[in-house]
What does this fold into?
Amino acid sequence: MPNTKDKRFNIAMYMKERKEARFKAVLNHRSLALEHKKSERIQAKIVKAKEKTAALTSDLENNMPCNSETRTRKATTLENGVSNMPVRTSTKRRRETMTAVSAIHGASKKNLKPAYDGMFDTLQKRCKMKDLTNYVLGNENLTKTVVSEHYKKELKDFEKSKENAERSIATFYSSGVMGKRKYQSVRLVLSMTSSEQGGRTGISIFPGCKVPKILTYNNLVRELNKIDIGNVLEINNEYLSDLEIDAPINGAYRDLREYLPRLAKFYLSTDRKHALEWYGKTE
It folds into this structure.
């Protein structure tokens, strides 16, 4: 029989080499992690050094006298509503600005409102409307407060207004009477959309600015009931007793002696875009 003793797999040697390889890998990983942390610390020091250099340079420029023989200060610009200057420099410039404006407009430390009023008056008189708009829209909190909050108030007032009631009535009677279910469907389509979480949410033309909704059907009915259309009389079946009819007639009518003057008053008080025709003749 062939000798298979030397051909067996040496498990002990394999496990020993595997253990040594794993130990080396752990050491290499630790060494790499230490080098990575060291690199991060160096990069952080570089960033701090650059910020400190920029702040010192800016302070030097700010403290230098501004005349024709010296270099002017670095201009302040806003990037996405944030000053491009270092924090220390921008804070100092704000303080200097408030000091100068307070002296001009008679403000004090206890009452800075005259300074704010003076700056805003100067901005709205000397600044272009496009630039003012960019300033407001460049600051997210300011945009939310000024645009969204003001719009929400105006939206609530409009939805309760006479104009929205007339808009709702015009929608209900457009191309014939819609009916309850059709009106509710149209109202839903005009003001609601599907949300990512499921369900529906209001259509927004801007964050926090939803499109105005027409009246609910119940509120629409209340508005319709407020409209004075005169007296509408039901047909009395006693008047139909002499007529030869197979089935009773249900309906209503108006007294022309009351209705015609009301109709004439309506046409005379309405803004007429087209000439009225009276017995085939144009008025």
Remarks:
- Confidence is low (pLDDT under 50) at residues 67-71.
